[in-house]
């Protein structure tokens, strides 16, 4: 399974830092290492893909990454953004995910 690669967020749906990218790539490598020797079937690839998707969703919910509101298309694949408002009823951009 050492021939798998990961193309992370090709549509720029999220705002990434070097640290969060590294976390996802490291987790991907852990999964590839875990399944080493397993047949490279569609089922195995789906397992890895699902685990990566759940990990990215966790990063989003933990506030480590955010939706890129300037992306070409806003599809919110991990659920609608949670947005906080300040006391005046105005949007707080720094808390948007």
TrEMBL record:
Recorded topology in the membrane: Peripheral membrane protein
InterPro entries the UniProt entry points to: NdhM (IPR018922)
Keywords (A to Z) from UniProt: Membrane, NAD, NADP, Plastoquinone, Quinone, Translocase
Gene Ontology CC entries for this record: chloroplast thylakoid membrane
Annotated Pfam families: NdhM
MF-aspect GO terms: oxidoreductase activity, acting on NAD(P)H, quinone or similar compound as acceptor; quinone binding
Location in or out of the cell: Plastid, Chloroplast thylakoid membrane
Catalytic reaction list: a plastoquinone + NADPH + (n+1) H(+)(in) = a plastoquinol + NADP(+) + n H(+)(out); a plastoquinone + NADH + (n+1) H(+)(in) = a plastoquinol + NAD(+) + n H(+)(out)
PANTHER family: NAD(P)H-QUINONE OXIDOREDUCTASE SUBUNIT M, CHLOROPLASTIC
Role: NDH shuttles electrons from NAD(P)H:plastoquinone, via FMN and iron-sulfur (Fe-S) centers, to quinones in the photosynthetic chain and possibly in a chloroplast respiratory chain. The immediate electron acceptor for the enzyme in this species is believed to be plastoquinone. Couples the redox reaction to proton translocation, and thus conserves the redox energy in a proton gradient.
Family that this chain belongs to: Belongs to the NDH complex subunit M family.
Record text on subunit structure and interactions: Part of the chloroplast NDH complex, composed of a mixture of chloroplast and nucleus encoded subunits. Component of the NDH subcomplex A, at least composed of ndhH, ndhI, ndhJ, ndhK, ndhL, ndhM, ndhN and ndhO.
Name listed for the protein in its UniProt record: NAD(P)H-quinone oxidoreductase subunit M, chloroplastic
């Amino acid at each position: 399974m050492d021939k798998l690669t990961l193309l992370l967020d090709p549509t720029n749906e999220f705002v990434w830092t070097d640290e969060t990218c590294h976390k996802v790539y490291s987790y991907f490598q852990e999964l590839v290492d875990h399944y080493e020797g397993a047949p490279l079937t569609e089922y195995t690839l789906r397992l890895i893909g699902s685990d990566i998707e759940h990990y990215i969703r966790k990063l989003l919910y933990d506030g480590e990454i955010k939706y890129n509101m300037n992306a070409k298309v806003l599809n919110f694949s991990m659920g609608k953004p949670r947005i906080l408002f300040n006391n005046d009823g105005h949007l707080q951009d720094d808390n948007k995910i």
